[in-house]
Write a structure and sequence with these properties.
This protein is mostly beta strands and 697 residues long. It has helices at 3-37, 103-106, 254-257, 344-350, 487-490, and strands at 79-84, 91-93, 116-118, 126-128, 158-161, 165-173, 180-191, 195-206, 215-227, 231-245, 277-278, 281-282, 284-310, 316-341, 366-382, 393-407, 416-431, 437-449, 455-467, 470-483, 491-493, 498-500, 506-517, 522-537, 543-563, 566-577, 588-600, 604-615, 622-624, 629-631, 643-652, 655-662, 675-677, 680-681, 686-696. It is globular and about 85 Å long.
């Protein structure tokens, strides 16, 4: 064997070892989790890095109806993160959740927006109080209340890492009987320069501070991406299970706000009676579980262009220039919703005013419905930048969507099936690069099937202008929608709710924009939407349609201040609904955080202070346990109470950790009306801890 052959043999052995060690973590993960994967078990994780951005605060999710133009990806970084557009798989580079500021708040339900309405326990259904933070109702509306915990291909952070990367996060609060805890783990590693595989797990178990309030989520994602000049592939596989006990709320709000009226001063939160509980047992549950398999593939057509760079041998390095792309997207979803109880008398009393459609059946309530959909999209795209005249991307697509819904009947369970199909055509015009002007215009039209005539047009324009010594970014946004009702808005069968509607298409027109000034840490947004044929849930919990026009106007200001070590971060929203009976909204909502930030030994960064969530009093929506939908009500107002918390937020090398004294104001604000929804108080004063650790090797 000559010297060259020996070197080749050693190189092959080295490569085999390299790939073996890269694949070993994934094999171990799959082996350890195979028992879980084999079961019907059970929310959103954003990957962390070691980057610490002291001056960055969490931007509000307001006015995000249209995605921002795509930014260039920095290939020099050891780790890159990006989202994709779900229909065509366009890459949108993003910064992950690496911020120290407000880290503790983002682990709370309240941290999912400026103002959030939920059932008081982590992991329970929720809805934003800010109208423009709400998405359109999905085809499977029972999963919508878990939007803050669900992962989707469009929100998930795909990764390209030159070194194996792992993140582990854990948070905990309360004693064993009422403990709230959440574990999140992410493992990602490249196999060669082009292929990345990863595994992401999110486990939440909150036993609840009130009776029959427990929540348990198990949500995992297997993901991968392959990026080369010619081929671009994204894979997203997501089984999820969200389960929460239903208690119907506490029987009397005075147990929290005026316990002296009921001689309940010495009662703990677990002693307070609730509508759907019997003793200390969890008797009534909701479960939403499902699977999603998503695949997007790009085949790029283009040419090689010489660059000014040379390799080690002095040859000119060539760069591949994509001219056009052939795109295919496969998207399969299935979901099942179950509402069940092992004590039907408790539920029967709660729904005594409702007709029992299955009154001849014996035993507990066991309502269920299921859904699946299969979507295929084919697209052709002309790429931006392959020549001087190609100043924008131009994409045309065709989507075929098939859906199936299974509901109950009075004779048998899960026997009524309805099928839908829909065909859409559409396109996109986008300028994703450039320092002065970027834009994105997209639209789709339903041409066949159930969604015939559906129209969805949206557009965004962004420009930058000099402003003193700074540069301001200005965006203008608009959309027009004409959408058919989702199947479950028209049809549903269960023990206490049964409806068959023939609603008209919902029409929405929105126009708005925002200005961002980094130097002054100012972001201001303004928007107005007109909606006709709005579909909502009325006082009885049944869907209804309002035929007249409703207008919603909202303005938001994000303003941060800093003086030496003192920081004051603010998010303020003013909004107005022209019909508060149909779309009830608080006029004003705010989040404010005041803290001092300093370093110890130049390695430990500490933020210490207090924050507050606040909204004005209004007729907040009620919650319907059997359907998991939020409904209008005009009996109880909620709000005008500052939800105060104290915190110690820290960063040390590759670790973030916090201690939070949650709802500290309950100890001295009287009356302590800390209700998130009518009859649903948030957790009383408690101590929370959490940490997030990065392992990069």
């Amino acid at each position: 064997m000559n010297k060259q052959q020996a070197q080749d043999k050693r190189r092959k052995v080295k490569n085999v070892r390299f790939f073996a060690f890269r694949l070993l973590p994934f094999a171990l993960c799959l082996f350890c989790l195979s028992p879980i994967m084999a079961q019907d078990t059970i929310p959103e994780i954003q990957a962390d890095t070691t980057t610490l951005l002291h001056q960055d605060s969490v931007r509000s999710r307001n006015f995000e109806n249209i995605s921002a133009p795509v930014l260039e990806m920095d290939t020099t970084k050891k780790i890159n993160f990006w989202n994709i557009t779900e229909r065509t798989g366009e890459i949108i580079p993003v910064r992950p959740d690496t911020f120290l500021t407000d880290y503790f708040n983002r682990t709370n339900a309240e941290g999912q927006g400026v103002a959030v309405a939920y059932l008081g326990n982590l992991g329970s259904p929720m809805e934003s109080r800010v109208f423009f933070e709400r998405a359109d109702r999905s085809q499977f509306m029972f999963a919508d209340p878990y939007y803050a915990y669900m992962r989707t291909p469009g929100k998930f952070n795909f990764i390209n890492t030159k070194i194996p990367y792992t993140n582990v996060s854990y948070q905990r609060a309360g004693s064993r009987a009422i403990m709230e805890e959440r574990f999140r783990g992410l493992l990602a590693s490249n196999i060669g320069k082009k292929l990345n595989l990863g595994f992401d797990v999110d486990y939440l178990y909150a036993r609840g501070y009130y009776k029959s309030q427990a929540a348990k989520h198990l949500d995992w994602v297997f993901f991968g991406n392959y990026l080369s000049d010619r081929h671009q592939l994204h894979l997203f596989v997501n089984p999820a299970d969200y389960t929460n006990a239903e208690n119907g709320g506490i029987t009397d709000d005075d147990y929290v706000s005026h316990p002296e009226y009921l001689n309940a001063d010495n009662m703990t939160s677990r002693d307070i009676p609730t509508y759907l509980s019997k003793g200390s047992e969890n008797t009534t549950w909701n479960q939403v579980k499902g699977n999603r398999v998503y695949l997007n593939y790009h085949y790029n057509l283009g040419f090689e262009r010489n660059t000014d760079l040379q390799d080690e041998e002095g040859d000119t390095i060539q760069q591949f220039i994509p001219v056009s792309s052939i795109i295919y997207t496969f998207d399969y979803k299935n979901s099942k919703k179950k509402f069940y109880t092992n004590d039907s008398t408790v539920v029967a009393d709660f729904y005594s005013g409702h007709e029992d459609f299955f009154k001849e059946r014996r035993g507990g309530v066991n309502d269920s419905t299921s859904y699946w959909s299969l979507s295929n999209t084919i697209a052709l795209s002309l790429r931006e930048g392959f020549s001087e005249w190609a100043k924008f991307d131009l994409t045309a697509f065709l989507t075929q969507d098939m859906r199936s819904f299974t509901t109950m009947t009075t004779d048998t369970i899960m026997s009524d099936e309805a099928n839908q199909s829909a065909t859409y055509i559409g396109g996109e015009l986008a300028k994703r690069t450039g320092k002065i002007l970027r834009y994105n215009a997209q639209g789709s039209l339903g041409v066949l099937g159930y969604n015939l005539g559906d129209l969805n047009l949206s557009g965004l324009v962004e420009t930058r202008i000099p402003l003193g010594k700074d540069t301001a970014s200005i965006q203008a946004k608009a959309y027009i929608k004409n959408l058919a009702p989702a199947y479950y808005e028209n049809h549903y069968r269960s023990r206490y709710f049964w409806w068959d509607n023939d609603f008209s298409k919902v029409k929405k027109v929105f126009i708005g924009g925002n200005i961002d000034i980094p130097h002054t840490k100012t972001n201001f947004g303004l928007g107005v939407e007109n909606v006709t044929n709005y579909i909502y849930f009325d006082k009885t919990g049944n869907p209804a349609q309002h035929g007249d026009n409703i207008q919603v106007v909202a303005a938001q200001l994000n303003q941060n201040f800093q003086w030496k070590a003192l920081h004051w971060d603010n998010q303020l929203v003013y909004q107005k609904s022209s019909n508060q009976k149909i779309i009830p909204l608080p006029d004003f909502a705010a989040y404010s955080s005041l803290y001092v930030q300093f370093q110890i030994a130049k390695v430990l960064t500490i933020q210490m202070g207090a924050n507050v969530h606040y909204w004005t009093k209004y007729y907040a929506p009620g919650y319907e346990p059997a359907t998991q939908q939020f409904k209008v009500q005009d009996e109880v107002e909620v709000g005008n109470y500052p939800l105060l918390s104290g915190f110690l937020n820290c960063h040390l090398k590759q670790t973030r950790f916090f201690i939070e004294y949650y709802n500290a104001g309950a100890a001295y604000i009287s009356p302590p009306e800390y209700f998130s929804l009518p009859h649903y108080p948030v957790n009383p004063t408690m101590l929370k801890i959490g940490l997030s650790v990065d392992f990069i090797n």
